[in-house]
Amino acid sequence: MKCFPFFNGDKKDKPNSTQSMQSTNSTFTEGEVKRAGSELNSLNISAISTESVRRNSYPSLAQRPSNLRVFTVSELKSATKNFSRSVMLGEGGFGCVYKGFIRSAEDPSEKIEVAVKQLGRRGIQGHKEWVTEVNVLGIVEHPNLVKLVGHCAEDDERGIQRLLVYEYMPNRSVENHLSTRSETPLTWAMRLRIAQDAARGLTYLHEEMDFQIIFRDFKSSNVLLDEHWNAKLSDFGLARLGPPEGLTHVSTAVVGTMGYAAPEYIQTGRVTSKSDVWSYGVFLYELITGRRPLDRNRPRDEQKLLEWVKPFLSDTKKFHLILDPRLKGKYPLKSAQKLAIVANRCLVRHRKNRPKMSEVLERVNRIVETSMETGSPELPLKSLALEETSSDPEAKNKKRIMDLKRGEGGWFVRMWTPKPSQKC
């Protein structure tokens, strides 16, 4: 039985062998990996073989035109000082990322900064993730998605080389700045802007193209910041096309990062765009609290973020206690409360009751627009929740009030308990 583990949030992208699910994906032979790599490194991404396209479930993407540049290993060695540790930006289960300089396609005399990801030799699965990134980022373009500049697939004396070249994001990831070790904690205004940018990126993937892409690994380490602190989604190796018309979900191997995955995805392997909405809700609580979804270094009752915040949400006098202390009180409390309400709606246990990302984005936009207002009363959290729905029909208001009383309004009232996952 072939298993693909969750990645544990304690160490970036490190496989956790204790929790895994059986894969439903097809496998490649070593020969197919080499052939697909050679074909992808041609002048046009659409040259990928029919069989490889079928196996990767991306026929409609792979057959679309792409403007990606094709690099050789030699070019990327030169760009990164032979993959020197002195220019390494990060290291994880996927491999290593290096800062480099390449010649501009528009003006060869000009050099531009890039980030070069060298995928580790994880065999078949690593290759499939590389193919997915090329297929997805080769044909989508949005201000809140990291731009893929080009790719490389070559065989050399070290074996199969798979590399990706991205635009350089100098301010690293949101996870870096939420870390207690960060010397540049994010202000509240910056956190709201990041929440807005991330919602825009997910809305584009889910609703603004003629096909749907489910990110499937949305987390703070995959939200990067450019030189102007604009947030962009990155790392699409686990992305999947949304379900075909007439179907409600995509069945797939359960992979991702512990603490972010939606409960129905963990239990059944069925993934939908609402799985990303759940992950986004977790991300909002990261921005609010400055804490990771799962932190084994904290006291036992504080290790799981969603469980830890639960007692503070129904008491306005206690709510401020979950706010990131590095904000030093410099935030509008009402703005933080409203963002928590949005998070709660993303974290509703039943996926059908979660909002679409476009609806989430609309609510976040309103919070951003009003966050700088002063003199407005700080209403209790429950009152704010009802205020948010005042424009709904009266019947919906009554139902929501009853839901809150019965404890069915979201995860924080009726805690979900996961079933034991299948082990290898």
UniProtKB/TrEMBL annotation:
Its EC number is 2.7.11.1. It comes from the Eukaryota. InterPro entries: Plant_Ser_Thr_Prot_Kinase, Prot_kinase_dom, Protein_kinase_ATP_BS, Ser-Thr/Tyr_kinase_cat_dom. Residues 16-29 have a biased composition (Low complexity). GO terms for molecular function: ATP binding; protein serine/threonine kinase activity. It is found in: Cell membrane. It is a peripheral membrane protein. GO terms for cellular component: plasma membrane. Belongs to the protein kinase superfamily. Ser/Thr protein kinase family. This is non-specific serine/threonine protein kinase.
